[in-house]
Design goal:
- It holds the Pfam family PAS_4.
- The protein is built from 29 helices and 33 strands.
- The chain is α+β, with helices and mostly antiparallel strands.
- It folds into 6 domains: 126 residues, Response regulator (Rossmann fold, 3-Layer(aba) Sandwich); 104 residues, Beta-Lactamase, CATH 3.30.450.20; 105 residues, Beta-Lactamase, CATH 3.30.450; 173 residues, 2-Layer Sandwich (Beta-Lactamase); 101 residues, PAS domain (Beta-Lactamase, 2-Layer Sandwich), CATH 3.30.450.20; 224 residues, 2-Layer Sandwich (Heat Shock Protein 90), CATH 3.30.565.
- The strands form 7 sheets. Strands 18-17-16-21-20-19 form a 6-stranded antiparallel β-sheet.
- It starts with a strand and ends with a strand.
């Protein structure tokens, strides 16, 4: 970097000559003509030296000198003056000038002074840098020491604390002010202070410091008096003032606690290993035992000391010769070390010291230290008991399979006896079953091991029978509990002792075959050696007896169920109705014989076909049936309505009924159908007969309705013959046409009512309109008289029905009401819509129906009219027609007050 010189002088010649000279010497020169100009340049730029004139036009040179040294204390300023007074020369040096020269100046002297000033400037700058670096180093060291987690303490040759860091404050609880100047014994327990003091004295007398450079464990003490273990690293250095010491102190309480925990854990691990129920041993990379717990040594028959350090594979493997002839990865050692995973062997065999073998399962887990495999741990279990239990469980499973595969007990007995006998070391198994009378047990099967020769004992059993309480089978029957006999030869209850003693029969186990408290039979097992009671085996055999009992119950229940099913099938086949059962998808799941006779056109089964297909319904009829099906619920089916449908030109009445499903069975709904084609024809004839009967009562009215217009037509015709005026003739002709049309309407109404409704199809019917038409027909009868008609019609109500049948219902009820009122009174007709139902009321003010006969009015042939005045079928037919349209009819009557018939039909919108 260029050296920058500032020249301050108001004489341009001096500025120019000085500038040329210094630039020639290689300096960077800046010139100022005044004091203010010089100060501005000094603030904007850093200079290495300045040449300053005393006499300036604005400020005195010494004032400028003061400000320049304040801006940069290390800046050397050379005074150049033409007035060599003491104040300008010696005075300037006193005020901070580096040197002074008088004008005219000597160029060589100026250069020498300037060179010396620049050297001094350089030394000052370097000294400042060194001082700054030293200060920074001290600060870094101080920060490092203060941030250390270990306590750092400095002490003089007398053992007094010169300095310690923040960690020491936190560790011992003393502040720096409390610690500085105090003896080191401040942080020691009382029992160590005398020894410490003698050591300090020995060092002061020139003794050698034995602990310098070593790390020792000691005991420290806090301000509160708490003691704790510490680790001390001690160092010393010597000066002309004497020996000084430094110590780094670490609180090792947690480390000591961890070490103690490790020792305790090691001891606990040893206890756990020795008390573990599993055998545990460790292996190194060569397969040699590194440790063996007590359980492992006991199960293998060795002592732990005998196994440590030895290769365990030849000692405990399945075949020692195999180990030598074929290299194998015994205990999965190499695999565990190779992949670092746990390896499990479920079924293997270990060999004891005496050569006997026992089944084991073991787990090999790798051991790693610092990521490097160093061996493995093998944990094994003796699974002899588990194997025995598995064998028993397998036998139980076999018994379940046998019982599931056979159909009768007789098929199962030979297999059951073999499997049961092989559950333990049994030599003979006998199946005792209650005979047909139910009061004795007889032999129904035997099994013996091929190595056993107990044929005489089996023959004896086959020819024996035991009532309750006699011999072992009878005792078990009575007690309903299993019986274990360790030695049958010394049991006085055993009646077969002579033969058993001769053949060597010794122990027995007798198991009841039962369900609940019901005993079906007894299973008797014998062995050729005395055997103590085995609770687990008794439990398994008892479960086996219960399974056989349940099988017997199921077989008996199945036989009863098959008989019941056959009876149900016969019953359903003999019913006079066709029965179909369907699921939610309307697929037929059952059809009785009559259903097949009615609806199976090809003779094939209806099961699996859709209901619409079986009944050959139209799309509209099918859709109506689906909607009806979907709206039905179990609650609504308690009183299911009867409806009608036509299949293959035959008329059927049908009704849905619920099929209560079990928890797991799918939901079903049944449908029963009756062929009512012939009944319908007879009913239509009966209805038509009743119509004609009612028409007979209206003949006189009809004659009146026709005779009056006929007489008028005759009179108008006679007048026309005599009239000559065309206008008059035309007027009479118009009257004749009107009378003729009235006659035509009367005849059409009577003919429409009298027409048979058997072939009439259901249509949309306006209830209020049909009531008014019925009134019109009734008016033509002989009994109507002066009855007042009152209508109370709600909003228009429509139902789907046979119009002629609905007319007959209304006409019959209105005629009965008019006859009851004897031609005088009030007839009230009402309709109302109640949700999906239409309510119709026909009320009169007649004498009412006596309570004694009110319940019989809908019975066929019942009438309160005198003989010859009625058939007694009117209200019966009304009831049938209303029911056929899925409606209801009820009557309210008070004697002397009148009668009200209330009818309810499903609305067309339902």
């Amino acid at each position: 970097m260029d050296t920058a010189i500032l020249i301050v002088d108001d004489d341009p010649d001096i500025r120019e000559s000085l500038g040329d000279m210094l630039r020639h010497e290689g300096y960077l020169v800046e010139s100022a003509v005044s004091g203010e100009d010089a100060l501005q340049r000094a603030q904007q730029m850093r200079f290495d030296a300045a040449i300053l004139d005393i006499q300036l036009p604005d400020l005195h040179g010494l004032s400028v000198l003061k400000v320049l040294t304040e801006l940069d204390a290390s800046l050397p300023v050379i005074i150049l003056t033409g007035d060599a007074t003491a104040d300008n020369t010696i005075g300037s040096l006193a005020k901070g000038a580096f040197a002074y020269l008088t004008k005219p100046y000597n160029s060589l002297e100026l250069k020498a002074v300037l060179q010396r000033a620049l050297s001094v400037k350089g030394l000052a700058v370097r000294a400042a840098h060194v001082e700054q670096a030293l200060h920074a180093s001290e600060e870094r060291f101080r920060a490092l020491v203060e941030s250390a987690t270990d306590a750092i303490v400095l002490a003089d040759h007398e053992g007094r604390i010169m300095w310690w860091n923040g960690a020491a404050e936190r560790m011992f609880g003393y502040s720096k002010q409390e610690a500085l100047g105090a003896p080191l014994t401040l942080v020691m327990p009382e029992r160590f202070r005398a020894g410490h003091q003698s050591g300090i004295t020995r060092l002061a007398q020139g003794g050698s410091p034995a602990l310098i450079g070593k790390t020792i464990e000691m005991v420290g003490m806090t301000k509160a008096g708490d003691e704790f273990p510490i680790e001390l690293s001690l160092a010393s250095w010597s000066t002309h003032e004497g020996v000084f010491f430094s110590g780094i102190i670490r609180n090792i309480r947690r480390r000591k606690q961890a070490e103690e925990a490790v020792v305790r854990l090691s001891h606990q691990n040893a206890l756990i290993l020795d008390s573990a129920g599993e055998g545990i041993f460790g292996l190194d990379l060569e397969g040699c035992a590194t440790f063996v717990n007590t359980t492992a040594a006991r199960m293998l028959g060795w002592s732990a000391a005998e196994l440590i350090g030895k290769t365990l594979a030849p000692l405990v493997s399945r075949d020692a010769e195999e180990v030598c002839t074929r290299p194998q990865d015994h205990f999965s050692l190499q695999a565990a070390i190779r992949d670092g995973a746990v390896h499990r062997m479920e079924n293997d065999t270990f060999r004891r010291k005496d050569g006997s073998r026992f089944p084991v399962q073991y787990v090999t887990s790798p051991i790693r230290e610092e990521g490097r495999p160093v061996g493995a741990v093998v944990v094994f279990q003796d699974i002899t008991t588990r194997k025995q239990l598995e064998s028993l469980q397998q036998a139980q499973l076999s018994i379940s399979h046998i019982l599931a595969a056979v159909g009768t007990l007789e098929e199962a007995i030979p297999q059951l006896l073999r499997v049961t006998g092989e559950m333990g070391p049994w030599d003979l198994a006998i199946f005792w079953k209650r005979d047909t009378s139910g009061d004795r047990l007889t032999c129904h099967g035997t099994w013996q091991r091929p190595s056993t020769r107990w044929d005489d004992f089996m023959t004896l059993c086959q020819n024996s029978a035991f009532p309750p309480g006699m011999d072992f089978p009878g005792l078990t029957w009575s007690a309903k509990l299993p019986l274990w006999i360790p030695d049958v030869l010394i049991d006085a209850r055993f009646t077969r002792t002579p033969t058993a003693s001769r053949l060597g029969v010794r122990s027995a186990c007798i198991i009841p075959i039962r369900t609940g408290t019901n005993i079906h039979g007894v299973l008797e097992l014998f062995a050729g050696v005395p055997r103590t009671s085995d609770h687990q085996l008794i439990q398994i055999l008892t479960d086996t007896g219960m399974k056989i009992g349940q099988f017997i119950d199921r077989a008996q229940a199945g036989s009863a169920l098959r008989a019941t099913h056959q009876m149900t099938q016969n019953l359903l086949a003999s019913l006079p109705g066709a029965i179909l059962l369907c699921g939610r998808d309307l697929q037929v799941q059952y059809a009785n014989t009559l259903a097949h006779r009615y609806f199976s056109r090809t003779g094939e089964s209806l099961v699996g076909h859709s209901l619409a297909e079986c009944l050959a319904l139209t799309n509209a009829a099918t859709q109506h049936l689906v909607q009806e099906w979907a709206t039905l619920s179990t609650e609504s089916l308690r009183e299911p309505p009867e409806r009608e449908c036509e299949v293959a030109q035959r008329l059927y009445r049908y009704r849905f009924f619920p099929v209560a499903p079990s928890v797991s069975a799918p939901y079903q709904i049944g449908m029963v159908l009756w062929d009512i084609t012939d009944d319908k024809h007879l009913q239509d004839q009966l209805i038509q007969s009743e119509k004609l009967t009612s028409l007979g009562t209206m003949v006189s009215g009809m004659a009146h309705e026709i005779n009056n217009p006929a007489q008028a037509i005759l009179s108008m015709a006679e007048l026309i013959q005599e009239a000559e005026d065309p206008g008059t003739i035309k007027e009479f002709a118009a009257d004749i046409v009107g009378y003729a049309r009235h006659v035509s309407h009367v005849v059409r109404d009577f003919a429409g009512y009298a027409r048979s409704t058997g072939t009439e199809s259901a249509t949309e019917v306006d209830v209020a309109e049909r009531l008014l038409e019925a009134v019109k027909m009734a008016r033509r009868g002989p009994y109507f008289g002066y009855v007042d008609i009152v209508t109370q019609f709600d909003t228009p109500a429509f139902l789907r029905a046979h119009k002629g049948e609905i007319d007959q219902v209304f006409i019959n009820l209105i005629n009965n009401a008019v006859q009851a009122m004897n031609g005088t009174g009030r007839l009230t007709l009402g309709t109302a819509q109640d949700g999906t139902w239409i309510d119709v009321t026909i009320a009169d003010t007649g004498p009412g129906i006596p309570a004694a006969v009110r319940a019989k009015i809908f019975d066929p042939f019942f009438t309160t009219k005198p003989p010859g005045k009625g058939t007694g079928l009117g209200l019966s037919i009304v009831h049938k027609i209303v029911t056929r349209h899925a409606g209801t009819i009820a009557v309210d009557s008070l004697e002397g007050k009148g009668t009200t018939f209330r009818l309810r039909f499903p609305s067309l919108s339902a």
